[in-house]
Amino acid sequence: MLSTSRRILQFWKPHRALGLGLVVTMMLRAVFTVVLAMAIKFVIDQVIEPDPDTSAWTIAGFLLIGFAVSLVAGLVAARLTARATADIIADVRLAVFSHLQRLPMSFYDRAATGDLMAHFSSDIAQLSRGVIRTPLIGLRAITAMALYIPVMFILEPRLALIAVIGIPLVIWLVYRFAPKSADSLDAEKQHIADVLGEVSSNLRAQRIIRAYALNGQSRRRFMDRIAALRDSSEKAERRIALEMVIAEYAVEFTKLAIIVAGAVLAFSGDLDPGSFAAFAAILTEFAYQASVLGMDVFPSVKQSEAGIRRIDALLAEEVAPDHTGTKPAPAMSGPIRLHEVVFRYREDQEPQLDRVSIDLPGESYIAIVGSNGAGKSSLLNVILNLYGLESGSVTVAGVDLAQVDLDDMRRRIGIAFQDTVLFEASLHENLTLGGNGFSPDDLDRAVSEAGLGHIVERLPGGIEADLGPGGVTLSAGEAQRVGIARALLRNPELLLLDEVASGLDPSSESELMGQIEHLREGRSIVSVTHRLESVKTADLIVVIDDGVVVETGTFEALLAAEGLFAGMWTKQHGFDVSANGLSARVHADRLKGIPVFADLDDDVLSDLAAVFESQYVDAGEVVFKEGEQGDSFYVIARGAVEVVRGLGTHDEESVAWLEDGDFFGEMALLSSNRRNASIRARGATTLLRLDRRSFSQLMATVPEARIVVEDAAAARAAENEAVLDR
pTM higher than 0.85, yes or no? Predict the structure, then answer.
C-alpha cells in the first residue's frame, strides 16, 4: 500500500496546487462537525448550569456560521475535484498514447489489440477511481480526523488517546493479516482485456461469421471468456468484501469500547456530561471517517492497483532505440546498398534476412520476388528503418541511414502497404493524413497517377466524401489505389510498394502496373510482389528465398538461368484468367507440374483440364473448413490462401500460405476423408476446382491413370502431414 501511495502522489505531483487547495477545503468542510459537537456540549452545559450570557440564538448563530463555511468549502472542493480529475486523466491518456508512439514495431507484433484498448478503457477507469476519486475521499477522511483529534484531546485526553491509537491499529491489523487480493485483481484485469480482445476480433470478422453461420460458435467463445472473467471477478470481490466486513466490525468494536470507557468516566464524575456528549459525537464521526478509510478507500485503492500496475507496465516497455542521426537525408533516389544485413523480428526466431548484401541501382525499378515468408517485406522494413538491424548496414548514395535524421529521410519516401489502413475521415484527409502544404494540383496529380480519378467521380462529395469506418465505402482494390495515391502525393524520391496489386483483378492490375511504369523517371521504385507477370520491365529483379538473396538479374537473364525464378515463373503460368478475375482455365501441360498428375498421358491431361471449374472467393472467405468431408481438389489460378488449423477457436493457427500456381486437397479426389485443416482466402482469389465425381468419371475410362494418381496422392499426403505437424 505504501508503494501505491507513493505512485498516487506521483500522479498528483504536477497538480500539487490543486491538491493543496483540496486539503484546505476538506479541512474546512469538517468544521461543521466540530461546531455541531461543541454546540451539543454548550446545550447540555447550559441545561445543567445555566449561563445568562449564552442564549439559544448564540448557539444557532454559531451553527449557521459553521454550516456556511462547510458549504462554501464543499462547493469549492467539488470544482477543484472536477478539474483535478480531468487534468490527471488527460495526462495519463496522453502519456500512454505518446509512449505507444515510441515503442518499437516488435512490440506491436506481439501485443494484443484488446490488451492495448483496455489501457484506455478499464485501466483508465480503475486509475481514475484509485488515483483521484478514492484518494480524495481518503484525503477528506484524513483531514477531518486530523481536525477532530485535537478537539477530542481537549475534551478528554484519555479517551482521545485510545481512539487515536486503537482505531488505526485495528484497521492496519485487518489489512496486514487479511487474505491478499492483488493476484486476483491482476487476473481479473487480464480477463477484462481478453474480453475486449474477443469483442474486437468478432466485430472485425462479422462478414465471415455471418457467411459461415459461426454465430453460435462465436457466442460460445465469448461465453468462455465471460465465464473466466466472472470467476476471477467473484474471487477478487469476495476477498475485498471480506476485508471490508472485518474492518467495519473491528472499528465498531473499538468505538463501542471507547464509549463504554467514557460512560464509566462520566458515571464516576471524572467527565462532565457535556464533554462526554460532545466527545461521543466527534468520536462517531471520527470512527465513521476511519471506517471510510478501511471499508471504502483501502479496498478501492487495492482494486485500482491492478489498473495502475498495467499502465505502469506499459510505460515501462522499452522504447525503440533512437536510430535517428543528425545528418540530413541523402537523395533517396540514389543507389541503395545493403551490406551483411542480419535482421529478425524477434530474438527467438530465425533471421528474416540472413547476411544479405546487395546493391540496388539508383533511379531504377527494382522488383523483390519470392515465396511467402521469404523475407521480401522484411527488406522494405529494413530500408524504411522501421526496425533496428541485428548487424550490417544500409546506405543510400553512400550515406549510412543509421546516421541520418529519420523524419527527414521518411519525408523523401512514399510507401504503399499490402493492407491499406483507411481512417474514418474524408478521402481528402486519408490522402493528406492531416498534412498541410498540398495544393489542389498536388492532389489532382496523385489521384491521376494512382488511377483514382473514376473512384473520386463516383463518390458523393468527390474528394471530400466521408469514407466511413475503416474506409468501408471502398473495395479492397480501391483502398490500395488510395494507398498508392497517398504515397505519390508526397512526390517521393523513393517509392516502396508492398504487394500493391494483390487485391486487384487482372485488368486493374495491368492498368496499375502500367501507371507505375510512368512514375519511374527521376525516382527509385522498389516493389515487393509474388506475381511475376508484373516484373518483366524491372531494371533489376532480386529473388529472395528463406532470408537469403539467391538470384539477381533482369527478367530475361533469370529465365535463361533456369533457377528459382524460372521455376516460380513456370508455376504461375499455364492459366488463362478473365480480365475481371472471376473465371479461369488451366492448360493441359500445366497439369504436368502438379505431382499427382505428372505421369498422366497428354490425352488424359487434356480431358482432365476440361473438367476443372472456376471458383472465385473474396478476401476472408473460407473455401472449406477443417472437419468437413473432402470432395474437391483445388489449384490457385490467381491469388493467395492460408492453411488454418482450429479456425474460429482460441487456438487458431495459420500453418502456411499458398499462392499463384499452388494446389491443395488432392486426397479428396480419392476418398471422402475429413479435411485436416481449413482454407481461407487472403485476398480476392480465383480457384480452379476439380470435384471427385467428375474426376472419378474420367478415371473410369482409364483405370491405369487412377493407379498413377493414387500412388502420387499418397506420397503428397505424407508431405502435407509433415508440414502441418511442424
Answer: no
